[in-house]
Amino acid sequence: MTKNWIRISAATVAGGMLLIASACGYNEYGDKRNNYNYGSTKGASKDEKMSRAYGPRMLGPTLHDNKRLMFSQTLSRRVEAIDGVNSALVMLTDQNAYVAILVDNTATGTIGGSGPRQETNNSGTSLGRYNPETFSQYANPNDLATGINNYWTVSKPENLSHAFKQRIAQTIRAYHPAVVEVHISANREFINQMNMYAQESWKGHPLDGYAEDFNKMVNRLFGGNGNVLPQSARNR
Fold this sequence. Notes:
A 4-stranded mixed β-sheet has the order 1-2-3-4, with helices on both faces. The chain has helices at residues 3-24, 46-50, 73-80, 124-127, 162-175, 188-202, 211-222; strands at residues 69-71, 85-93, 97-103, 182-185. A hairpin with a 3-residue loop joins strand 2 and strand 3. The chain is α+β, with helices and mostly antiparallel strands and 236 residues long. The protein starts with a helix and ends in a 14-residue tail after the last helix. The protein has one domain (48-222).
C-alpha cells in the first residue's frame, strides 16, 4: 500500500464524514434535524421564516376567497407517508392547498411549546372502554379526530414546528407545483370538517358548493386575526 493511496483514502473518508456531519449535524437549535426529528425546541429562525414553503408567502393576512374546492386522495397519501403524520386530508382550491393532519409518535420535534397529548385523552385504552369520561363505548363515525383514544391534535397551526410544516409543504409542492400557498393544521375542528368534505368526495359529490363555508373556516383558522377554531362540536 503506497503513501499516495493512503492519503487518497484518508481524504475520501474525511470528505465522507464532512458530508455526514453536514447532513445530520447540530444546528443553531442545538438538536439534530432529519426526517425523524424536526427539532422544535425553539421557534423558526428569521432565515427559515423567509424561506418557508408553506403560506402565506407575503406579509399580512391571506384572504381565503376560494371558488373551487377539490379533495386530493393522492396528495393525502403522500403526506401520510411523512414521519410524524398519522392521517392527512388535502384539499386543493383555485390556488392553494389546505392540509389537515393527525400527529403520531413516528417522529419527534413536531410540536412547538406544549405537546398535543394535552388535547387527547387516551386513558380509556387501559380501562377497557372507549370514553373514560362518560364510560361510553360509542364514537361518532363521522369524526376522524375525537379527542378520546385518538391520535393527537394541535389547536393552533403555529404550534406545529416550522421544520415539520416545511416538510409537508415541500411534499405538496413536489407533486403539485402550481400551488401558491400551503396551509397546514392539526386543529380538531378543521380535521373533522375536512373529513366530511372527503367523505362527500368519495361519494362522487362535487365540493364547490361548500366553498363559502370552507372559506369561513379557513379564514378563522389561518386568516391571521388571532381566532382559532374551537375544539368543540362543529357546525356543518
